[in-house]
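Tokenise the fold.
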Amino acid sequence: MKAFVVEKYGKDGLHAGEVPEPRVGSRDVLVRVSAASVNPLDKMTRNGEFKQLIKYKAPFVLGHDLAGVITEVGSDVRGFEVGDEVYARPRDLRIGSFAELIAIDQDDVAPKPESLTLLEAAAVPLVALAAWQVLAGRANLQPGQKVLIHAGAGGLGSTAIQLAKHLGATVATTTDTATTDLVKGLGADVVVDFTKENFSEVLSGYDLVLDSLGGDNLLKSLSVLRPGGLAIGVAGPPDAGFAKQLGAPGFMGVAMNALSRKVRKRAKSLGVRYEFLFMEASGSQLRELGALYDSGALRPVIDSVFPFEQTLDAMAHVEQGRTRAGKVVISMEPVSW
């Protein structure tokens, strides 16, 4: 089958190729991919940024989320049938949505939200799960709390704004002038145009920050938190909890803590907390999120759609910062977006 394969770690390591069709285990569903989406995690995985912890063996097929139609079910699969339309973020070490077919553990799959097309649903899984696991899971966001969501027009940011509003929070976000109206329309109460203002000088007293940028942006974010507040980073630096999540040896936890020492030290000096979150696959959470899409509480934001054969161009579009808002989707069907 046709697929886009990481033949070696690095920017030039991803190529189109032919690979065998996936083997379908007893707990797997085989899905014919209708569409997939591009995530920053694809670049990080291609470049080998987590290779000490998530040990992919080249060659492997890239791609972290998708929507499609089930063509085969394993002998132990329950609740799914051939012909079902589904969406998923396959678990680590079983990714591979930039391909015609993918075998996925049944626990990672959920029925596609009825209100979304397959193309729209492909834009959802990874960012929706990440937003859910940060806001509803790790932070247990409550009505009336204040949350700052960085890069509000991005794939994760646009989803997190909507989910935070659904959970009853007051939401601030950072964005540029061109997407101010978009993030307001998604529900942001306070919008900081980063081309005109420094968010750390105009915001204060926040219960939570969701940071997807890292670096100095994360360090500045700590100052807008109330005492005891929490900053959760999804772009790093990682901490010992990440190594524990992946079942890595104890020395890797020490190494991860070393990478995040600067930000954790700064957080402690301010009386706030920092944690790293690496989202996990979950079909059950996707079912809950699907209900929110069908109710209208959430909607996908799509920047552009590329045909499958232009997957490398789709990756470049994201890496070069040409995304205006939302997700870049790769379609197996003729593009008429």
